[in-house]
Write a structure and sequence with these properties.
The complex is a heterodimer of chains A (245) and B (254).
Chain A: H1 2-17, H2 24-39, H3 43-64, H4 74-113, H5 116-122, H6 127-139, H7 142-163, H8 169-177, H9 182-208, H10 214-244
Helix pairs in contact in A: 1-6, 2-6, 3-4, 3-7, 4-7, 4-8, 4-9, 4-10, 6-9, 9-10
Chain B: E1 2-11, E2 14-24, E3 29-34, H1 40-47, E4 55-60, E5 63-64, H2 70-77, E6 80-83, H3 95-106, H4 111-124, H5 140-152, E7 158-162, H6 170-186, E8 190-194, H7 198-204, E9 207-212, E10 215-220, H8 222-227, H9 231-237, H10 241-253
Parallel strand pairs in B: 3-8, 3-9, 6-7, 7-8
Antiparallel strand pairs in B: 1-2, 1-4, 4-5, 9-10
Helix pairs in contact in B: 3-4, 3-5, 4-5, 6-7
The chains are: A mainly alpha (245), B alpha/beta (254).
Bound molecules: adenosine-5'-triphosphate and magnesium ion (MG).
């Protein structure tokens, strides 16, 4: 019952976000601020993780290829497929649920408990639009983050496989181009876009509707991380079923 | 003039306000007093539409707030200044940006004009020189004054203050009280102040509502509060020995 209530409340929140708009000049500033905090601020950790995960994927594949009949190019092929299809879009989004998601929940939540949201409302400002709309727009640039992650993941795989002496550079590069299906990229970016919307709105919901004090802000961030991840994982399953099978 | 009629408000089955009737008059500093937890802040939030009471109406100069359309509510809110009990300053903005915020949202003035208006208001609350600090970098009393500056910067027609001088030293508290009273008279606005401070009650109590156990237990002005025999009031107002002495001296004088 309370889940049904929360889901209803969530969709009402989305409706409110697209209700009365905040003054344009102010919104523009807020959007740039959010892009800076949510997107630019995440590039470091995303690059770091992508590069090393890409490397590990390549090493794992190489170590498990003992059969001489299987071509070494498979290392590059396998790394490319797993990075583009899952590691970059899904794995990185779960990391972002921890980083960006908790940040959104705790920043909106602390505005709730210190009555800053009431202050906005009293001034006649649509606080949902003011707080959440800029985050949604900023997250439209999230696919760039995932593109960078894909690229660095593959660079990491190359580095580990070639510099690690598992496979020659030419073979790796040719394996990378084997059986390339453009639709896989389309699929990956459709997912990414949906995840971006989840990452912007579910943590915002947990912050906006929280009750209590500073301690509860911490709880809300944790709950928000759990729910954001769960929804990402389920959505990933559904989208994969719909688009790939 | 703001008229509160028969306001009932409960939380989780517990009735906090049990039918409050009161008229907050224009051009006067209207005070709400009462023990901690008596529902003063809740009443204020009902008046602002942040809480919806189960029963009762609020009339702003004769029009019933709860039957306003969204647009009408928003128009009204542009004329409201509110000082929250905890300040409710925006942490992510500097002092200047906080005070400028209502102006930026609702006026089309140039930045230079905004800056000069902000400087003028900050000067009235004795805060020149702190423009570029963040709320976390200034003292609690300074935060309070910034919040007051933000509440009055847009020249509101209705000014609500939840404990404007708690946490301030007596001198600053008096400055703030006087400032609020001046603004109220100068601009002929309707001001509602929640306070615990008996100094304020005796200085600027032009129309006082005393809440106890969810009902309006007493009303009157500062001259009446000296003379009243109502024990619930005298118990509350003269709970300190110092004030008892002041009162006795006053009564003898009359
Ligand atoms: N959002 C809320 N949810 C549940 N109960 C609330 C809420 N806000 C206030 N209350 C309850 O209403 C009662 C009155 O609270 P209120 O904040 O109005 O007190 P107050 O008179 O302003 O006290 P103080 O002088 O300490 O500020 C308290 O018992 C409080 O627990
Ligand atoms: Mg209070």
């Amino acid at each position: 019952m309370s889940y049904v209530y929360s889901i209803g409340e969530y969709f009402l929140m989305i409706k409110g976000v697209f209700g009365r708009m905040t003054k344009r000049a102010v919104l523009k500033e807020l959007i740039f601020k959010e892009i800076n905090e949510l997107i630019i601020g995440s590039l470091g950790i995303v690059s770091f993780i992508s590069f090393f995960i890409g490397g590990v994927v390549a090493i794992q594949t190489a170590l498990n290829l003992n059969n001489p009949l299987i071509p070494k190019a498979l290392i590059a092929f396998a790394a490319r497929q797993s990075i583009i299809l899952e590691f970059a879009p899904t794995f990185i989004s779960i990391i972002m649920a921890g980083k960006v998601g908790s940040f959104i929940t705790s920043s909106i939540g602390s505005m709730r408990v210190t009555e800053q949201i009431d202050a906005l409302e009293v001034m006649g400002i649509n606080s949902l639009n003011y707080l959440i709309f800029p985050k949604i727009i900023a997250m439209l640039t999230y696919p760039f983050v995932i593109a960078i992650s894909m690229f660095l993941g593959i660079v990491g795989a190359y580095a580990a496989a070639v510099l690690g002496g598992f496979v020659g550079s030419d073979i790796f590069l040719s394996g990378l181009q084997d059986n390339f299906d453009g639709f896989h990229l389309v699929y990956a970016f459709i997912k990414t876009f949906i995840f971006a919307m989840i990452l912007a709105t579910i943590p915002a919901y947990h912050g906006y509707y929280m009750k209590g004090g500073a301690l509860e802000v911490g709880h809300a961030s944790t709950t928000s991380f759990v729910w954001t991840s769960v929804v990402i994982i389920i959505t990933n399953y559904v989208v994969t079923q719909l688009l790939l099978s | 003039m703001i008229e509160v009629k028969n306001i009932h408000k409960s939380f989780d089955g517990e009735e906090i306000l049990k039918g409050i009737d009161f008229v907050f008059e224009t051009g006067k500093t209207n005070l709400i007093i009462g023990e901690s937890g008596s529902g003063k802040s809740v009443l204020l939030k009902c008046m602002l539409g942040l809480f919806k009471p189960e029963k009762g109406t609020i009339e702003y100069d004769g029009s019933a707030y709860y039957s306003f359309t969204d647009v009408e509510q928003r128009e009204l809110r542009k004329e409201v200044g509110m000082l929250f009990q905890g300040g409710a300053l925006f942490d992510s903005m500097t002092v200047e940006e906080n005070v400028m915020f209502p102006l930026r949202m609702f006026t089309t003035h140039r930045r230079r004009e905004l800056k000069s208006r902000v400087a003028e208001v900050l000067k009235r609350v004795n805060l020149e020189g702190s423009e570029n600090k963040y709320p976390a970098e200034i003292s609690g009393g300074m935060q309070k004054r910034v919040a007051i500056a933000r509440a009055i910067v847009n020249k509101p027609k209705y000014l609500f203050c939840d404990e404007p001088n708690s946490g301030l030293d007596p001198k600053t508290a008096t400055i703030i009280d006087n400032l609020i009273q001046e603004l109220t008279r100068e601009n002929n606005i309707t001001t509602v102040i929640i306070t615990h401070d008996m100094n304020s009650v005796l200085e600027i109590g032009e129309n006082i509502a005393f809440l106890k156990d969810g009902v309006l237990a007493w009303q009157g002005d500062k001259s009446k509060i000296f003379k009243t025999d109502d024990e619930t009031v005298t118990d509350f107002v003269y709970s300190s020995d110092l004030f008892k002495k002041v009162r006795n001296a006053q009564l003898k004088g009359h």
